[in-house]
Each structure stands twice: as C-alpha cells, then as structure tokens.
UniProtKB/TrEMBL annotation:
Highest taxon of the lineage: Bacteria
Signal sequence coordinates: none
Protein name: Cyclase
Pfam families per the UniProt record, alphabetical: Polyketide_cyc2 (PF10604)
Phylogenetic placement of the source organism: Bacteria, Bacillati, Actinomycetota, Actinomycetes, Kitasatosporales
Length: 168
C-alpha cells in the first residue's frame, strides 16, 4: 500500500490552538508585537518592519531572518494581508500573489479569556522546501509531513510563550 500524504501543491496546513486567561486586548498586544517573536521561536532569529512601518496594518511589510539546521539561514519579506486588532493578524511570505507560506493568528473571546489559534499553509509559491523536494521528488510527501510536524511543534511553543506573557 502506498502512503498518500500531502504534496506541496496541495497547500497543506497546520493549526494549533490554546486558551489564554487574559482578554483579547492583552493577547493582541503580544501577538501584534512581531519584533518579540524571535524570542518565542527556535527558527525565527530577527524581524524588522520595512517602509517606515512600526506595527501591523494591511499592506505593511517586514523582513524575517530565520535559521534551520537542514536549510541554513535565509531571509524573507512578508506582507500583512489581514489585520483586525484583537481578532486576526495574517501575512503572506514572499510574493503575496503566489506566497511560499501564509500565517494567521486568530483571537476569539472565550470563557472570560481568549482562544488563540496559529495557522499556517505551505505554498503554493516556491520555498526552501521546494529545493529539497526538487532533489528528492520521490520523498516529497515525507518531506512535507516532516516539515508540517516541525511547524506544529514550533507553533505550540510559540503559543505557550504568548500565553505566558499575556497571563503575566
């Protein structure tokens, strides 16, 4: 029997949720401060707003500098595509018309606190993962599966940091 995991072209996604004992405004203050995200991530090393932006707004851009043991170091430009304070913050990585990834935080008031989810989609545009798939096309589904599991662990860690900061 052949394993039929997701392929990159399927635009696979991962999402992790947590409940935070803090109002959406306090959670938003942490989530929307993207310059603090490297302290909550093993992969993301540094972030800088571009074009004079100093916070999220639709159309704002930022550069993220990342590092991964298998992929080395790289930088990407992201474009904010959704920004509703205390509700949602989303951005595309690289070309907004053909992004290498889409990331989204959603906040929802729940039980006197906030349900926070972080979601991401791979592709459809090319990324560092595309080069690995090009080298080993027969392993595409495994490569995608492993990367999604890495993102799932990383997102869970980020959400735990956000929770700790927002509840402090």
């Amino acid at each position: 029997m052949e394993w039929t995991g997701a392929r990159y072209a399927d635009k696979p996604t991962v999402e992790v949720r947590t409940w935070i004992d803090a109002p959406p405004a306090r959670v938003w203050a942490v989530v929307s401060d993207i310059s603090s995200m490297p302290a909550m991530s093993e992969e993301l090393q540094r972030v800088e707003w571009l074009d004079g932006a100093d916070g999220p707004a639709v159309g704002a851009r930022f550069v993220g500098h990342s590092r991964h043991e298998a992929f080395g170091e790289w930088s990407t430009t992201s474009h904010v595509i959704e920004c509703e304070p205390e509700r949602v913050l989303a951005w595309t990585v690289q070309d907004p018309a053909d992004p290498s990834a889409i990331w989204r935080f959603r906040l929802r008031p729940e039980n006197g606190g906030t349900e926070l989810s972080e979601w991401m989609q791979l592709g459809p545009g090319r990324s560092g993962l595309s080069a690995a798939i090009d080298r080993m096309p027969e392993k595409e589904q495994k490569i995608v599966f492993v990367r999604l599991r890495e993102f799932e662990r990383s997102i869970a860690t980020t959400l735990a940091h956000i929770k700790k900061r927002a509840e402090a």
